[in-house]
Amino acid sequence: MLAWGTYDTRTHPRAGILIEGLRAHGVEVVEVRRSLGLSTAERVRLLQQPWRLPGLLLRLLRSWHWLARHGRRAVRTQPPDVVLVGYLGHFDVLLARLLFSRATIVHDMLIFAADTAKDRGVGGLKQLLLSGLDRLAVAASDVVVLDTDEHAAMMPPRHRARGCVVPVGAPTAWLRARAVAVSDGDILDVVFFGLFTPLQGAVTIGEAAGMLLDEPGVRITMIGAGQDLAATRAAAVGSAAVRWLPWVDSDELPRLVAAHHVCLGIFGTGDKGRRVVPNKVFQGAAAGCALVTSDTPPQRRALGEAAYFVPAGDAAALAGALRTLHRDRVRLAELRLAAASVADRRFSPPVVVEPLLARLTTSSR
Fold first, then answer.
1. pTM of the model
2. Short-list 99, 47, 103, 50, CA closest to 70
3. How far apart are the C-alpha atoms of 361 and 109, rounded to whole Å?
4. CATH classification number, 172-346, choose in 1.10.390.10, 3.40.50.150, 3.30.70.380, 3.40.50.2000
5. Residue 36 — very low, low, confident or very high, per pLDDT cuts 50/70/90?
6. Domain spanning 2-169+348-363 has what CATH number?
């Protein structure tokens, strides 16, 4: 297998999870990647500021030139059976189809570009263009990897058979971080990390923090920056119990999260929020945190009883959940053990990659 594209495993660990899992099953994976150095938020910002698109195009062409040259060199003696195009590779998969016409092209699409842009307030002509890009990316792929059944159902009917559902999972580093000791005193340490997008519902967390002024034993750490950061800060009404941190390096983040009792998931009320299981849920469980997140079908399927579910967008319910876990240390301990158990059984790279491995094994017969 050739893992190929402009993906960045530091900002989006998904490709690394798949590669790690496949190698654990004995698949020979040669990796050739050249990151664009753009986050998802920056890519969406480009759509909102079209005058920046020529710069993106130039950066993309430079990366493609490098990828084409090094990709061909890497497989000169042994052409790949499979080319895995990493997450955020909607453009990459089009080039992969041209360069590796005889290989099975697996596109880890995960989610749809148009759906992500819509969640972040991008509409009109840009939405139509992104829908077209989604269709092109699907058509160029032999296997389209998606993260939930709900996203698989969004595949164009004539290409739906190409879909393969593979949960996001968690890198091994997050499982190893669980050894970090967490204080069992009177304080409940809660953490959220993310890009403060509408999907994540960070404003709801801010509102809940404002409702916990009478519960001084709850401390909340908010990590990251993005679209809803200012509104989230305003919603927290100056709560002294909230600590605000800029984004933490990916090597340090697992240990930092593992040093908290509770990891918060997502609380957005949009359609996309009802279709995803976010990175932070898999990672928080792997780190041994109790999970508090929105009550949605895909999260229920992924976590079962290993989370405290609250209605999406309901700040009062979220504040109530944190009060309960602060006062009921037995339930807190039970949820932490349950989250760690489900992560060990279902979220490690070798486990999450099994549906893709089965699909490729079947198609090769």
1. 0.90
2. 99
3. 20
4. 3.40.50.2000
5. confident
6. 3.40.50.2000
